[in-house]
Amino acid sequence: MLGDLGCSCSRRGAVKPAVIVVVTLVVVVGAIFIKGMAGAVAAFAAEERGREEITAVAQELSADGALTVGFGGGANLSGKLAIADWGTGEIQYTFESEIPFDLRATGSADLGVLLLVDRQKVKVGTYVDEVTGETTGDAYRWVWDARLVDVASKAIVARQDFVGKEPPATTSLDWNWGAEPAEEAVAWAVGLMR
Question: Is residue 147 a contact partner of residue 161, using CB atoms and an 8 Å limit?
Answer without folding.
Answer: no
